[in-house]
Amino acid sequence: MTTNARQNKQWRPATNLVRGGLQRSGFDETCEALFLTSGFVYQSAEEAEQTFKQEIERYQYSRFGNPTVRMFEDRLALIEGAPFCRATATGMAAVFAALACFLRAGDRIVASRALFGSCYHIASVILPTYGISADFVDGTDLDQWEAALSRPAAAVFLETPSNPMLDIIDLAAVSTMAHAAGARVIVDNVFATPLLQHPLEFGADVVVYSATKHIDGQGRCLGGAILTADQSWFETSLIPFIRNTGPSLSPFNAWLMVKGLETLDLRVRRHCENAHTVASFLEGHPGVERTFFPYLASHPHHALARQQMSDGGSIVTINVRGGRAQAFGFLNALNLIDISNNLGDAKSLATHPATTTHQKLTVEERARLGILEDTVRISIGLEDAEDLIEDLDQALTRAAGG
Ligand SMILES: *Cc1c(COP(=O)(O)O)cnc(C)c1O
């Protein structure tokens, strides 16, 4: 393996997405190589012994590390501006590993209530079985964070923008309060993508991704990643946890992800542009009660979104005028946009959170998050925005009985 000799951290993000972390084998291939191998061989018994004693650093077993996975980790680290990255098999493996490496029995975490369903399950159901308690706050209310963090806590976990109502949480303010309470801040940055928001710059300690979403972005495979600037935590907690518990990303999926990063800048620009165009259209449509998009002036946290994020993202959430019947009628009338709970995909996808992603919550819990019977989340893809608008327009008109 030869490291790309001209690789340097001074490259701009679009260049790093194409070339960052690239390591060529002795065959001088243009494209990143796929090392689809579980293990590696040693030249001698002595070399194997030295490897296991950690006297020499080399690939040993793909649960510990793999050259294709490393290229993905190194490339993503350059984009995030975080020196340390480990890839995982799914986004949820990243969330659980990051939390598990900070928490001990008797600890307490504080989390924003508006979380991805499985993240909420980890915090509210799994962690308590290990003696770790969780307190939930309205992430947009700094008074609630202040009250919850007036007592010591080990970790703060939050998602911004949140799923599906696109709440924006003040990363700098929450990080300051969290650190004063002794807590480390873990941010699920999926909705912002690694290009639109860099939580470490606002004081967060760890960033986690579901790479399944925009990083692959083409609906092919699952993956995740954990990024940090905390070398000591990374080396003494996270690496041994991953090596021994095995949430490792497969080399094949890492190869898809590294190729996904190559086009991420282009795709995210188009996602954001399309989403903004569609959101502006929906905001004026008689079949829509309310439209949520962080870069619309009508968004409740619009100023903070402009401050923290370099664009509005790819998700638009609406309240369809009427109720559940009209929301279902709208979804069923879509011709181009698919009904699917995934997001960040090249294809535009729409879902009814109250009966899919958030159906396990009670009506009251959903109402507290702003998820109503008429709420529909739309992940805006890479199609022509005019085709999306035509599809949304005819579906809304049909749902209204027009
Ligand atoms: C999808 C998602 C996850 C989980 O990722 P998987 O790759 O499906 O395990 C976590 N957080 C957010 C915000 C997500 O959208």
Describe the protein's topology.
Elements: E1 2-3, H1 13-19, E2 23-24, H2 45-52, H3 67-80, E3 84-88, H4 91-100, E4 108-112, H5 117-129, E5 133-137, H6 142-148, E6 155-159, H7 171-180, E7 184-188, H8 193-196, E8 206-210, H9 212-216, E9 224-228, H10 231-245, H11 251-262, H12 264-283, E10 288-292, H13 302-308, E11 315-320, H14 324-333, E12 338-339, E13 349-351, H15 363-369, E14 375-379, H16 385-399
Helix pairs in contact: 1-3, 1-11, 3-11, 12-16, 14-16
Bound molecules: pyridoxal-5'-phosphate.
Pyridoxal-5'-phosphate (PLP) binds next to helix 4, helix 5 and helix 9.
Question: Which keywords apply here?
Answer:
402 residues, alpha/beta, Aspartate Aminotransferase, domain 2, Aspartate Aminotransferase, domain 1, 2 domains, seven-stranded mixed β-sheet, 16 helices, 14 strands, 41% helix, binds pyridoxal-5'-phosphate, PyrdxlP-dep_Trfase_small
Structure characterization notes:
With 402 residues, the protein is of the alpha/beta class. It has 2 domains: 255 residues, Type I PLP-dependent aspartate aminotransferase-like (Major domain) (Aspartate Aminotransferase, domain 2); 135 residues, Aspartate Aminotransferase, domain 1 (Alpha-Beta Complex). It is built from 16 helices and 14 strands. The termini are far apart. Bound molecules: pyridoxal-5'-phosphate. Pyridoxal-5'-phosphate binds next to α4, α5 and α9. The site of pyridoxal-5'-phosphate has 15 residues, from α4, α5 and α9. Keywords: Amino-acid biosynthesis, Methionine biosynthesis, Pyridoxal phosphate, Transferase.
